Amino acid sequence: xxxxxxxxxxxxxxxxxxxxxxxxxxxxxxxxxxxxxxxxxxxxxxxxxxxxxxxxxxxxxxxxxxxxxxxxxxxxxxxxxxxxxxxxxxxxxxxxxxxxxxxxxxxxxxxxxxxxxxxxxxxxxxxxxxxxxxxxxxxxxxxxxxxxxxxxxxxxxxxxxxxxxxxxxxxxxxxxxxxxxxxxxxxxxxxxxxxxxxxxxxxxxxxxxxxxxxxxxxxxxxxxxxxxxxxxxxxxxxxxxxxxxxxxxxxxxxxxxxxxxxxxxxxxxxxxxxxxxxxxxxxxxxxxxxxxxxxxxxxxxxxxxxxxxxxxxxxxxxxxx
Length: 321
Ligand code: FO1
Prior knowledge:
The chain is α/β, with parallel strands linked by helices. The chain is built from twelve helices and 14 strands.
């Protein structure tokens, strides 16, 4: 297989909707295929929370660190080469250390929180942080307003990070609520791109459909604008061989009485999709898919495979245009 790291020939702009880890890998591939003015990456902020007096934006940071090649690829979140002295000291002082903030990562949250306290929007702060890390492409939060994902579980409602990190996704999920979403305004840039005649593709990255992509789609007007956009909408399945590549998506599907399959992910997105990308492992599902499906390797274990998946998705978009 030949993999080129050159730019893709797709004419026009590409909008990528993403959560954290899986989406961050895909975003890293996309930036090698597209010029900065061709790509807008929109990240979920439903996972954000206030902790130790700081505003933490895990998905924005996962994408930002991946784009800057500073992410820890083993752990899947945070910075490579991180140290943990602040957390150790916090633990000694009896502070909450269940959510691990690395020493260098802490600087991101300190800087973000200080700029927000000065009155800057999260969009503007994210842009400043990205520039500082030498990122040329555009990464924006789905909204500048406060939206918080709440997980309804058998043990009651939990804030997302309480469910995900503190409880290690153990409680059985019954549903989700995106607190504040009705009052939130979607990113103005995202809405402008969705209406742009130059838009050539909308890519739904291989992120959790329920807690990473749905908060973006459920912002007022977004789902309608995605459906009305002239560009094809292509989702990459985060479920491979019945399992989530990372995270609790498959466990959530089982608990929500859905089959944990790529097919069920496509059905979740329903009529929104023009195309769906599944892994080679799931090739037998392709003939019965209700949507145009492309079978490629979606396992992004190297920079080469991230670029290749990005190219495959953009090729698919060209064919669907
Ligand atoms: N995930 C964990 O499993 N444990 C942690 O202690 C943790 C800390 C953390 C700190 C900063 C950050 O940006 C992300 C962090 N994450 C941690 C990951 C985060 O909870 C998840 O990536 C997402 O919210 C799910 O996409």
